[in-house]
Amino acid sequence: MLSGVAGSSWLGVCVVAEVVVWVDHAGGVVAKPSLELLTVARRLGDPVAVVAGEGAAGAAGVLGEHGAVRVLVSEAPEYGEFLVVPKVDALAAAVGAVGVPVAVLVSSGGEGREIAARLAVRTGSGIVTDAVDVEVGADGGPVAVQSVFAASFTTRSRVTRGVPVIVVKPNAAPVEAAPAAGAVENLDVVFSPAAVCARVVERAGREASGRPELTEAAVVVSGGRGVGGAENFAVVEALADALGAAVGASRAAVDAGWYPHSHQVGQTGKSVSPQLYIASGISGAIQHRAGMQTSKTIVAINKDPEAPIFDLVDYGVIGDLHTVLPQLTDDINHRKN
C-alpha cells in the first residue's frame, strides 16, 4: 500500500484508485472550476479527466499539467448539436472505461448539476450536491462537506450506494499545478436514443465585459435595492473592477430592471461561493442568502443597522453605499498604484 494514496493491495501489488473528473471547457479552454476539481481529485487517487465536444483534445495539455494521469476524449458532433444527454452518455462511458472509480466529480452549475443527477440515476448511485469541500474518509473514500442553513451548520456526508457522484461548488479548492502523464485516450461513446431528443437550434454569444464569470469569480461585488437605480450600479462596477471581481445583483435589483438577470445571485438566480463576497445595499432576504451563504468571507454595506444581512456577515459597514464604495474604490486603486 502506498502511504497517502487511496487504493487496495493484494499480494504486494498496489492498485491506485482512479477519480473521474468531468471537464467543462469551451473549444478546449478549460474552465477554472474544472482545474479546481483536479486538485480535489488528487486527494482521493489518480484523476481521470473526461472531455467531450469540439476542441476537447486541445484541453489535454493543461489537464496533464494539473494532475490528470489520463484524459479521455470524445469530439463527436452530437455534443454541440443536442442538449445535455450526449454528455451524460460520455460520462457514463468514462465510468465504464475506468471500472469502479472512487468517485465522479462534477463542478456545480446548471448543466453540471443536471449531468451529475442523470448519471447518478443511470448508474444507481448516490449523489451529493453543492459540496464546498471533499475530504478523504477513514476508508479512503470521499466525504463531501456541505454548508447548510445559511452557513449555520457544516455537514459531512458519504455515499453508501454505487459510485459516489459529488457536485462541487467553484472555489472549493485552489488551482494547483501537478504535472502528470496526461495520456490521451479516445473515449468510445454509444449515444442513447434520448441523446437526440432535444436539438440546439440557435446559439447567442454573451457580450464580453472583461470581468470574471460570476459563478467562477474569486471575488464578487453585488448590488441590491439600496443602489437606487440602474445608473447607480456604476459605483458597484467601479469597485468590482478595482478588485478584479465579478458583478452580482439581488433579485430586487434585477426585477427592477437595473441589472441583467444573468447576474442575479440567489435561489432563483446563480449560486456563488467566492473567497470574498461584498453585498452593497442588499437587505439579506433568504432568497439572496441561498445563493451566496457559502462564500468564504462576506462583507455587507448597508445603512440599515437592522438589515438581516448583518446576521450572516464576517464584516459589516453601517453606512451609505454611495459614500462607502467610492472611498473604498479610491483607496484600493491608490494602494495598487
At the first level of CATH, the class of the largest domain is: Alpha Beta
CATH architecture name of the largest domain? 3-Layer(aba) Sandwich
How many helices does DSSP assign?
9
SSE run: EEEEEHEHEHHEHEEEEEEEHEHEHEEH
Q: Rg from C-alpha positions?
A: 21 Å
How many domains comprise the coordinates?
A: 2
Strand order within the widest sheet? 9-13-8-3-6-7-14
Question: Roughly what percent helix?
Answer: 25-40%
Mean pLDDT: 92
- Please state the overall shape, judged from the principal axes of the Cα atoms: globular
Summarize the structure.
With 337 residues, the chain is of the alpha/beta class. It has helices spanning 32-44, 60-65, 78-81, 85-98, 110-123, 233-243, 251-255, 286-289, 321-336; strands at 7-10, 13-16, 18-22, 25-26, 29-30, 46-52, 70-74, 103-107, 127-131, 133-136, 142-148, 153-157, 165-168, 183-186, 219-223, 246-249, 276-280, 297-302, 315-318. It has two domains: 18-186, Rossmann fold; 219-336, Rossmann fold, CATH 3.40.50.
Written overview of the protein:
The chain is α/β, with parallel strands linked by helices and 337 residues long. It folds into 2 domains: 18-186, HUPs (Rossmann fold, 3-Layer(aba) Sandwich), CATH 3.40.50; 219-336, 3-Layer(aba) Sandwich (Rossmann fold). Helix content is 26%, strand content 26%. The chain contains 9 helices and 19 strands. Strands 9-13-8-3-6-7-14 form a 7-stranded parallel beta sheet. A 5-stranded parallel beta sheet has the order 16-15-17-18-19. A 3-stranded antiparallel beta sheet has the order 10-11-12. A hairpin with a 2-residue loop joins strand 4 (25-26) and strand 5 (29-30). The radius of gyration is 21 Å and the shape is globular. It starts with 6 loop residues before the first strand and ends with a helix. Residues 1-14 have low confidence and may be disordered.
